Amino acid sequence: MDWARHKSDWPHAETSRFVLSKPHKWHVQEAGNGPLLLLLHGAGGSTQSFRHLIPLLSQEYRVVAIDLPGQGFSRLGAQARCGLETISEDIAALCELESWRPHAIIGHSAGAAVAFDLAPRLHKRQPAVIGINAALSSFKGVAGVMYPVMAKTLAMMPGVAALFTASSGNPRSVERLISGTGSSLSPEDLRHYGSLVSDRSHVNATLQMMAQWDLGPLLRRLPGSDLQGLLIAASGDRAVPATTSRDMAAKVAGLSYTELPDLGHLMHEEAPDAVAALIRKYLSENTSI
Predict the structure, then answer these.
(1) What confidence category does residue 200 fall into, taking pLDDT thresholds of 50, 70 and 90?
(2) Residue whose C-alpha is closest to residue 82's, from 192, 212, 190, 189
(3) Whole-angstrom Cα distance, residue 151 to residue 21?
(4) How many domains does the chain have?
(5) Assigned domain for 182 exists
């Protein structure tokens, strides 16, 4: 996306900067002081997904939000590095470059999977992980075979990103896309999503991420891991059912689970005060600085 075109009205643009950590040029937003919280958005999103959480969390913490490679305003430096493990490796390198030592990593949807894969790659004091509607399950049956193949095929086809942006960028399409996840957002929030799905490079990077995504190794490691964290799920999520987080919390000894009613996949945008309160409560009761 073109930063010069959007910076005048992008959420928290005054906190933005760009960091070259090869192979990507990262868009970073930073606010507040205190223990560091690293925020990772889901597939197809950007830092704007946390526009309401950032002011709430930055009252007590140093909050750093980044755009994943090629999404939002981060420039993709290598198309082959859009999978779960390569994204985690590249964010770990960015953390090392910036001397970031996260107290906790907060991830939404696919960003939560990145958070769980990233945490053991960081410094010796492993950060807590908080997943918001965490995408921690693979497709089963025929879908498990067909969906990844379809994603790879679409990502390889020339013109697919342009076709998607042309068909999905109008306000009604964006509203249908968001409501399909079980969430209801304000016109302002919808407008920012419209900017994202109207951008060819953003859509291409999202397709590449889908094509290269492989949760298998992470899902096999998690039950025996010593990770500590919290999974927050929404009962009305139509994209990632609450049972996904509930089942994972039952398998991993260090994970707690809580559920919020009447919210959808983007619950941190629908009810930021409630989500921020759960995050602060968990961190104050379960982590030390």
Answers:
(1) confident
(2) 212
(3) 27
(4) 1
(5) no
